[in-house]
Each structure stands twice: as structure tokens, then as C-alpha cells.
Amino acid sequence: MIASPEPLIDAFGRIATDLRISLTDRCSLRCSYCMPAEGLDWLPRGNVLTDAELARLASLFVSLGVRTVRLTGGEPLLRPGLPGVVGMLAALDPAPQISLTTNGVGLARLAQPLADAGLLRINISLDTLDRDRFIEITRRDRISDVFAGVQAAYDAGLSPLKINTVLARGTNLDEAPALLLWALERGYELRFIEHMPLDAQHAWSRADMVTAEEILARLEGEFTIETAEGRGAAPAERFLVTDGPGAAAWATRPGRMGIVASVTRPFCRDCDRLRLTADGALRTCLFAHDETDLLGPLRAGADDAELAELIRAAVRGKQAGHGINSALFVQPARPMSAIGG
Ligand code: SAM
Ligand code: SF4
Question: CATH top-level class for 18-339?
Fold first, then answer.
């Protein structure tokens, strides 16, 4: 173990304290804005970090200053023994705060074991409240599983419970106010995410993307929304919803919501995130073209000091910003589901 007082600092003075770990690139859904109906060429199982390898790398990152860990994928609930992975992370010293991003399928069974193992917070992705529309978007008939998962997460005390929603024109844009009302009535925090050029099909188009400005304009027809303070390095701009339909009966008032406007309001200057893919590659940005293989050196016998130097070198090379709005932007080879969203 490295006893290192040196933070993971990049050339622009940003300090990395948040690690997103992808536990698998496989998924139980096929969201049309993320991957094709037939799925993708999944990583061979032997190329995926084992629990022991994950524990070794996570411990190293924590010794280098990582304080928050988010588990994601692909669909992280597909990882066998997930509560054990959470328990392993919770036992690190110092223990990081652990959160999870999931599509919610299978969560009804796993929410309580995950909370018991040390999971603190959860984001559940849900783009519609309508069963037929859910099938159209995800190509799977699983909305009742997701609703059951949301309820189980709430009952397990995973709070604040956040709902992630990607809006698309002609699909679910009209549902934005209904989704917000649904969340407010239950005390969940809805976060709208701008669609990013990270889909496996490379079908993203700026013209089709629903912007933060458009989302706010649509919601402000029905709700009173104010900017909230205290965003820090968080990707979501946060808002207070102070009034709207049925406000007297909302679970909390003001309610909260967020918008992750990665495309139209980039927050790269404050980015404190690193990403570890399921096959052990370190990425310093979702949109990076370079990544640093940690699994190969680890399996070849590298010690902690050697792995730490690889991590430090990668962080030093972190790019200033994602460059989506540059004419020279080129989408990275790995799609969102294979990086870890
Ligand atoms: N499968 C899990 C889920 O859906 O929550 C975790 C991985 S998924 C890639 C994480 C989040 O990224 C989800 O909320 C999903 O809606 C969102 N997402 C997927 N593709 C996206 C894209 N191209 N742009 C913006 N968000 C995307
Ligand atoms: Fe799977 Fe999440 Fe991508 Fe949907 S957004 S296909 S649930 S990885």
C-alpha cells in the first residue's frame, strides 16, 4: 500500500477524488440511445477484472486520494456477487462513499443487500412512466421490475434517491413534466441528462439532442423552478422546484431536480472524476481517446508503486475538456456502456 500525501492532480490543477468503476459492459436492456437492438461485442469474461483485482485497484485509488466511488456499467446489477463487491469497497481504509447507477432491473431483490453491504446512494434510470414507451425505448418489457426496484431502493433507505432520464424528441420529451411530478410526489430527485455523442451506433446529432434550455422552458410552463446553490464538482446543475401541480401533496417542498448538461453547459473545469472500465483501463475523461491499461501490468506482476505511477501519469495527461463543441470533435471508440456512464 502506498502512503501518499500527494493528491492525484492534473496539469490544470484539478484533483481527482471520484472514481467511476464499470463492473461489466453487459446489459439487461437495449436503450436505443445507448446501444443497438442486437447488443454489442461483449468483453470476453477473462478480460474483466476479478473481484480480487478490483479490490487491489480500488485500494490503490483510495490510497491516492479517491473518496467517492460510483459503480456502473453496462448494467452493474448483472455482476455476480455485487453486495460482496460493495462490502469490499466499504471495508477500505479510508472507506469511500459508495453509490450505484443502475437501470433498476433486478433491484427489487438486491436493494436491501446492497444497502446492508454499505451502499449509500443510488441513481436509477427511467425515461418514461408508460409501459409501451418503455418497451419502445429499451426494447424490453421490464418497466414493472424497474418500478419495483425504485420502491425497494426507497424502502432500503438509499437516499436521496435519484432518477436519471434522457429525453429524446419524438419519444419522451412530452413526458418531462409528468416524470418530474411523479418524482416530486415520491420525494425522488429527477436528473435530466443531455444526450451525449457516446452511443454505440454513432447516431447522435446536435439538432436532435434535447438541450437543458429546452427542458427548463418546457418545465417552467407548469412548475416554478429556481437555481439551487452548492453544485461543487457535481455534474448536475441543481434546481429547487418551489411550486407546481399538486404542490401541497409533494413528498418534500421545495422539491429538487437536476440537469446534467454535458453538451451545452460543460463542467469540465471542475471535473474531479476518473473512470475504470470493466477490463481495467483507466480513463480520465468519458471522451478521451487515450486510456491506460492497468489490468495488463497488474496481471504481469506490477507492484503498487508501479501501478500508482501509471495512474499519476494518466491523471497528469487529462485533457482540459471534452471538446464536443469543437469542429474537430471525434467520438471515442468505446461507447458509454463500455466505459461506464
Ligand atoms: N445501465 C445503467 C443505467 O442505465 O443506469 C448504468 C450505465 S448507463 C450508461 C448510465 C446512464 O447513462 C443512464 O442513466 C443512461 O440513461 C445514460 N446514458 C446512456 N447513454 C447515454 C448517452 N449517449 N448520453 C447521455 N446519457 C446516456
Ligand atoms: Fe443498458 Fe444503461 Fe445503456 Fe440502457 S443506458 S442500454 S440500461 S447501459
Answer: alpha beta
